[in-house]
Amino acid sequence: TCIDILLAIILPPLGVFLKYGCKAEFWICLLLTILGYIPGIIYAV
């Protein structure tokens, strides 16, 4: 939905957390967001 996409752009780890929970996908997205905001967005979307 539109809200999921907006969350993935504004806070990529939150969007992934809401979809997958606190699994490996969340931690990968968090790490990518810390290393560079754009890779986190790409991974989340």
TrEMBL record:
Organism for this UniProt entry: Sonneratia alba
Spell out the InterPro entries in the cross-references: PMP3
The domain of life is Eukaryota
What GO CC terms are in its UniProt record? membrane
Query: What does the UniProt keyword field contain?
Result: Membrane, Transmembrane, Transmembrane helix
Listed name of the protein: Low temperature and salt responsive protein
Quick check: keyword Transmembrane in the entry? yes
Q: Does the keyword Transmembrane helix apply?
A: yes
Q: Which residues span the membrane? A: 24-44
What does the UniProt entry say about where the protein is found?
Answer: Membrane
Protein family membership:
Belongs to the UPF0057 (PMP3) family.
Q: Which Pfam families match?
A: Pmp3
